[in-house]
Structure formats: structure tokens, C-alpha cells
Amino acid sequence: MTWLAWRQLRPSAVATFGALLALAVALAVTGPQLVHVYDTTVKPCPSIGDCSDAITAFGNKYNVLQQLLTIVMQVAPALLGLFWGAPLVARELETGTYKLAWTQSVTRTRWLATKLAVTALATGALAGLLSLAVTWWSAPLDKVGTNRFDGSVFGERGITPIGYALFAFAVGALLGLLIRRTLPAMAATLVAFIAVRLVFSQLIRPHLMTPLRATFTLLATVNGYASFNGSTSNLTAGSPSDASLQNAWIYSARIVDAAGRALTPQATASACPQLANGGLRAQLPPAGSAGHVHAVPTQAAGQALQQCVTKLSDSYHTILSYQPANRYWTFQALETAIFAALAICLAGVALWNLRKHLS
Amino acid sequence: MSVAVTTDGLGKRYGRRRWALSDCSLEVPSGHVVGLVGPNGAGKTTLLNLAVGLLSATTGTISVLGGNPSDRPEQLARVGFVAQDTPTYSHLSVADHLHLGARLNPGWDAHWAAKRIAETGVDPTQKAGQLSGGQRAQLALTLALAKRPELLLLDEPVAGLDPLARREFLQTLMIAVADDGVTVVLSSHLVADLERVSDYLIVLAAAHVELAGEVEHLLATHRRLVGPRRDSVSLPGDCRVIDASHTDRQTTLLVRTDTPIHDPAWIVEDIDLEDLVLAYMGQTSNVERNRRSGLRVQP
Amino acid sequence: MIEFRLDSTSGVSPYLQLVHQVRQALRLGMLEEGDQLPTVKEVVARLAINPNTVLKAYRELEHEGLASARPGVGTFITRTLSDASLAAHGPLRREMGRWLVKARQAGLDDESIEALFRDTFRSASAEDVA
Q1: CB of B193 within 8 A of CB of B166?
Q2: Range of the domain at C65
Q3: Domains in chain B, start-ordered, CATH in brackets?
Q4: Chain B closest CA to C6's CA: distance in Å?
Q5: Is residue C46, in this structure, part of any structural domain at all?
Q6: A105 vs B: CB within 8 A
Q7: What are the backbone dihedrals phi and psi of residue B254, each rounded to the nearest 5 degrees, phi first?
Q8: Domain shared by C67 and C105, yes or no
Q9: Last residue of some domain: C59, C77, C95?
Q10: I need a labelling partner for A212 at 20 to 30 A (CA). Which of A226, A358, B53, B242 fits?
């Protein structure tokens, strides 16, 4: 049965792995150059002076290829689900070949299990190799780019693409079995896959591990003063440039007193009348930005803020809720494992359904 | 005489309402070539799919070669099946299909399969999708026979074929019967073909079994009676009217009887298989017609 | 060797057609004592018919004493039909000729004669069976 499953997959597997090989060659050629540019421009720049120009120039290197890789990494799992998952059973049901397959001396459970296993293996291998190549190639860019936990890159690096691809494949296979027609099953697979990916990254991923908490004293370089959504102005919380927060995924930063009560605008106003009264608001950094101070306040405003922060820091401090950088691979492993487990569950449902209902 | 297929009160319902087959009880003796006939939608495909385990019964039981037509390799190995429209993997070659058969069937006769394909003149490297209907049917038949089944079920295998391809297909089938004595159940619309190949007949109509028996016995016990018009018919006790038609002057009956009819008022004629099949396929509607025409059959 | 053919429109069952063809070949001298009939498989392969039909036809021929099976070899013709019945043909033909003249004198046309003959023949056969 393995032979038949592989024989059916072979033409598209050869084509897909061929495309992967072509991409790998392109990456193998450009990758070392990327490392070279990083080593000669970005790495030595802190000793020379301002890094932003060097970083910007480096970030724009191979811009087209970067964008292409982003697209490939986002759509590849979905495509595997669409073109290997959905037709796996649906095509056989549509063309009637299942009648040929199921009347050989092999149970239909073994038939489906083997097809699922062989194709899933190819799917996982393809996604894994693709991610390996892309992760390796992007490594220098990721050092200067966005946070690794960021939603736009977390799912495009490491092992998560394997989990997504397996999941998309299993969704496709099950929907193909239930819908029994290839094209509608493909459409449904796409919708289901995107929905689960979005729900997971928005609602579930942040809760995979309990975030750490850290307290920091208030600092004028970190805390600003602004108004939220048109409400009264207040001191804003921020995350200090501490080693423990390097590359961390910061959920929230709040200013609270020893009893855990949040700093109220009234308390700020009474403690720092000069801030509340002066027309300084517009000159102070905006709220909510984690880590970076976006605007340099004028000297007067800066002094007022400095005084206020010093005064309030006696009774107030910043509480940060975050996932430290060293949890990155734990998150990768957890997310991959969950998607892979979902895939196995879906495959189980498909097998159960084949036994019970497809008759 | 051993039995190939036994069904008891077998029924299959699709959805909530539609019964494709209902209350089907029959015994198909082994060693026969069984013709399964009936109008479209009569339940032929359903019966065959139930026998090979592609479908599961809603009511009743079915036993095939003494076993349950379930999803077990040992059972599957004993039953060959050629589905309607003879599906094959269009992008796989003929040789791939033979390889598939060898991989998936423990009793596979590779030598015979290769010989068969060579005899049909099909290029083994050709993709199944490029074969003619007749060649594809031959490939499907070869796959079903090379696993050396005890029972072979064929669902309208020759329906879409030209007369030459049909003849070649039936020749292959009949040679296999002569060689192995495999029991065959063949559904077909083409009574002329069945007249040649089958020695046992099952007529299905409107999801019911209307008639089942050895062809020879059926032909020996059915007669056509032609005589002057009469509305009230007096016939011997075991005589059952299957079909009746009237003109102003003449009454024509198709009757089933085990005893000869001596009434000189009737011209008694033998019938052929086609007459028999047509009479039973139309029986359901004839009951209604007879009631309206006022025909009384006295017991 | 005899080559069988089947007429699917004749209304005669396939096994009887085979029997008739052997008898006819015997009458016409195309088959003689000692000739071998085609094997069951040869007939099946040629005509695409049920092997049981051929077996049944051969059994019928054996039953009539026209052929006999030698296990492992085949079925062979054991006697011929031509001599015995040919002698009787002449007188019968003359008698029937006289009958035909009478029928024409009575005003029957060809079709009426044929219908009458068939009807009489059928009734006589039915009585034989009874």
C-alpha cells in the first residue's frame, strides 16, 4: 500500500521538491553575501557611531527575495493542505477509483492510514526543509530586524511551519473525505486553515506559558506622559532596556503602587501639577510603545517629567509582564506540537469516519 | 451445491427516504454465471456494492462465500470486483496497475496478468487515462481476475463498450470461468449478452427481487399462451400470470407453470430470455393494468 | 473440425443451437465418426458463451449416443446420422408432395399451407410431450 500511496504522490512530490531545490540554490548563493554584508557594515557600526543607516541599508538588501520568502512561508503550508490534503480522498471519491482501491485485499482503514502517513511525511519534510533554508538565510536579517516573537516572523521560522503544514494537510484530507469533492474541499480547507492560524496566534499563543513579571523603578527615559483615547492624561508605562528584556515578548507594562493599585490621572495631577498644567503633552512621547522612546521632549518638558517621575517613584513602580527570549524555542516547540497533535486528531477523525459513515 | 451469496431481508436506504434495495432475500449458488438484470435504479449496483463491502446494509443480512462482506483482507482477497465505468487511476500506467495489484493482493498471479495484458495488445507503459473504454475494461477485469477470486462481481462492465470490445471482454470472462470455475455475478442491460453467458438469472425491479433461478429452469417453466380474447381466465392451479395483454379478439398471457397446459383453446409457445426479463421487469406496472382491464385470474 | 456459431435472434437457447449444429453437420456428412469436437475452452473462447452451455450440449450429444468424452483428450463423434435417415427422406418427400397437391386443390395458398403445417406440427409435438 505504501507503494501505491507514494506512486500517486510521486509526480507532484517531484515537482514540489524540485521547486524547493531551486529556492534552496537561490538562498545558498545569496546567503553568504548577506552574512558578509552584516559582518562588514552592521556588526562594526556601534564602534563607529550611528547604526541606523547601516541597519536600514542592510535591511533593504535582497528586498525582493525577502518579500518572496515571506509569501512562500505564509502560503506554503496552506498550499500543501489544498493540493495534497484536499484531493487525497476527494479525488478518489470523485473519479470512483476508491472502488478499485477498496476492493483489493487491503482494508480501507489501512489504505487511508498509509496514504495519510506517506503524504504527511512528505509534507512535514518539505515544510521542515523549507523552513530550515529560510531560517538559515534570514538569520543575519533577524538579528537587526523585528522581535523573533513578532507574529509576522514567529510562524515563518524554526519548526512551526512543519506543524502548520501537517495541520493544513490533515484539514484538507478530512474535509475532502467529508465533502467528497475536491474543489469545495480545497476552498473549505483554505478558510479553515486561515481561521485556525489567526485564532491561535491572536488568542491562544499568548497563553501557552504564564508570563514572567518584573518590577522596575520609574525612569524619565522610559516613562512618558500622554492621554489615552482622549481620556485624562497620565504617566505612561514603558519597558526599560534591561538585559533580561532583550528580545523578550512584552505583553504589558503598568505603573502601580506597592499595593498593586494603578496610578490614577488624579494622583499624577496632584503630584505633578506642572505636568498637568503645562502645554507639554504634545511634546512628550506617545503612550504604549514598548522599549523605544519615540520623540525627544523639549528641555522644559523633560525637566518637568524628570521631577514628576522622581517624585512618584517613591511610591510607584513599573510592572512588566513578558516572555523572556530564552522561551522562544519552548514556544516554537509548543505551537508545533499542538498543531501536529491537531493534525493527528483530524487524521483519527478521518479514519473513524471512513470506517463508520462512508457507506 | 454451495452458496456464493445469501441475502436475507437485505435493504439499503440512502438518506432518510430512498430505499435502493429493500427486503431482498436470495441465494446465489456458486459455480454459475449469474445475470443480474433490471431497469436503471432497480438496485443492481447497490446489491453488488453490498456484496463486496463497499456499502453496509441498512436492514437484513448478507453473506458472501460464507463470510461477512466486511472490510477484512481475507474476505476482500476472495472477491473480485469490477465497478461500473471500470474506474482506473488515469495518470498511472497499465504496468503500474499490475504492480498495484501485486502489492495489494496476496494471491496475485503476476504471470497470468502479464499474459492477459499482452493478449489484449495494450502497451503496458501507456497511461490508463489514454486507454479506450474496451482496453480500460480489460485492464479492470485483469486486475479483478489476477487476484484469483472465488467470486467475481461485475457491475455493468460492458455497458459503454462497442460490440467488438464487448465480445472480447466476455470472451476473457468466459475463459476465466472455464479455467478456474470462478462464480460470476454480472449486472447488465444487454439481455442478448446475458443469454450467451449466464446460466442463472436474477431480475431486480423497483428495489425488489422479482425473479431468481437457473435460466434453463426458468425458460422451461414459462410459456406464452395465445388465444381468443377472454376476460376471465381459467388456468391450472399452479399457473401464475406474469404478464397479460389483450386486443379486441386475442389474449396473450405469459405464465409460469410447472405442469404442461393442454387446453386446446391456447396456442402454447416457448419464450426466450428477453421475453422473460421484459415480462418481469414490467410486472409491477402490469398488476395495475390488469386490474383496470378487468382480468380475473381464478386460482 | 466443426466451427460453432450462435444466432442470438433465433430464440433457440444457445445449448440447443450447438446440438442442432452438430446434428446437421452429421446429417450433411461434414462430421464423421471419430472426429473430435472443439474443446469446451475453444468454444468458449470463440463464442464468449458460458462453459456450462457447451458442457450441456456435449452431454446431450453423449446422451443421444452421437458423441463420447474421453477424459483428458476431448469429445469425439461416435456415430453418424446420414445413412439411417437419408433412406427415409424419399418416400416422405413423395407423400408430402401428394398432400401439397391436395391442399392446393382445396384452395389454400402458400401462407395458409405453412400456417396449417406449423399448427399441426406444434399440436403433434405437444401431444408427444404429454
Answers
A1: yes
A2: 14-77
A3: 3-216 (3.40.50.300), 221-298 (no CATH)
A4: 9
A5: yes
A6: yes
A7: -115, 115
A8: no
A9: C77
A10: A226
Helix, strand, or coil here: A35? helix
pLDDT tens digits for range B220-231: 899 898 888 877
How distant is the alpha carbon of residue C53 from its chain centre? 16
Kindly state the helix (H) or strand (E) to which residue B211 belongs, with its residue range.
Answer: strand B208-214
Residues C73 and C112 in one domain: no
Instruction: Pick the residue from chain A with its C-alpha nearest to B128.
Output: A97
Is residue B210 helix, strand or coil?
A: strand
- State the pairing for strand pair B183-187/B79-82: unpaired
Is C9 contained in some domain? no
Distance (Å, rounded) from C-alpha B263 to C-alpha B162? 46
Vertex B15: Cα angle to B11 and B18 (nearest 5): 55
C62 and C114 inside one domain: no
Interface confidence (ipTM) of the complex: 0.87
Alpha carbons A115 and A173: distance in angstroms, whole number: 10
Distance from CA of C1 to the nearest CA of B (A): 20
- Cβ <8 Å between B104 and A106: yes
User: Quick one: cell of A28?
Assistant: 545558498
For residues B94 and B119, the answer to whether their CB atoms sit within 8 Å is no
Residue C115 within a domain = yes
> Which subunits count as partners of chain B given 3+ CB pairs below 8 Å?
A, C
Instruction: For B276, name the nearest residue in chain C, comparing CA atoms only.
Output: C11
- β-pair partners for A354: none
Same domain as C91, residue C68: no
- In this structure, what is the dihedral angle of CA atoms A73, A77, A83, A87, given to the nearest 10 degrees? 180
Q: How many structural domains does chain C have? A: 2
> d(Cα B35, Cα B28) in Å, to the nearest integer?
11
pLDDT (tens digit per residue) in A46-69: 777 677 788 888 888 888 899 999
Strands (E), chain C: 67-70, 74-77
